[in-house]
Structures are given as structure tokens and as C-alpha cells.
Specification:
The chain is mainly alpha-helical. 58% of the residues lie in helices and 6% in strands.
């Protein structure tokens, strides 16, 4: 498991850990049933408090990405790929709504928005 903490990020450390583990689970880098490092080990490796590591694991468990087994540790849970996809679609829709609202304020047309998105996806938008 590879986790990089970015101290200049606006995201709190627990959220950076949570999101990186989530990505590794969704991508298949972390397999179902695979044991995660202990909270103590993760905290020591990342040089963070155990409370921060515990919060990341607690939230991953709440979201259904890991299972905690008393006395044994934390393990990657079986994932419902469709449920995960729906979660991300919902987040994308929220961001798109914000973009539409901003574009209306800036008087950017729908065609301009579509072109911006296409350019961005193609790596040409700067």
C-alpha cells in the first residue's frame, strides 16, 4: 500500500489517507480480503498521530470499503462496483452543477462549456 501525504494540500491528512486507500481498492491494487497495515504501523510509517490513522480507517469502514475484525485488523471489503460508480456519478453531478452556476455568472455559453470540457479531457486546456 502506497500513501503519500501532501502537507500543502487543503484536504486534512485523514481524508488524504482515506481517498488514497479508496482509489487503491477501486483500482484493484488492494484486493478483497487483503489486510491493511495496523493503525499503529500506518501512523508510524506516515509520521502522523494514531487518531488520524484511526479516523481514516473508521471512515473507510463506514463507507463500506474495509471491515474491521476485533483483534485481527482491518481488511478490504468486497465492493459493489455499481454502488461505487453511483457514488462517483453523484459527486460529478454536484461538481457539474457548480460549474453550470459559475458559467452562468460569467456568461459562458453551453457550447463554450462543452468545448472547455473536451479540451480539458484531451489535455489541451490550460
Amino acid at each position: 500500500m502506497n500513501i503519500q501525504i501532501n502537507n500543502s494540500s487543503d484536504d486534512p491528512i485523514y481524508l488524504q489517507i482515506k481517498n488514497q486507500i479508496k482509489v487503491q481498492i477501486i483500482s484493484g491494487d488492494l484486493k478483497v480480503g487483503e489486510q491493511l497495515p495496523s493503525i499503529r504501523f500506518l501512523a508510524k510509517e506516515l509520521r502522523i498521530s494514531m487518531l488520524t490513522a484511526k479516523r481514516a480507517y473508521d471512515e473507510l469502514e463506514l463507507d463500506g470499503f474495509i471491515n474491521s475484525v476485533q483483534g485481527k485488523g482491518n481488511f478490504v471489503a468486497a465492493q459493489n462496483k455499481e454502488l461505487i460508480r453511483e457514488e462517483y456519478l453523484k459527486k460529478i453531478e454536484e461538481k457539474l452543477q457548480e460549474i453550470v452556476e459559475l458559467s452562468e455568472i460569467a456568461k459562458i455559453t453551453n457550447d463554450e462549456l462543452v468545448q472547455m470540457l473536451k479540451s480539458y479531457v484531451e489535455g489541451k486546456y490550460e
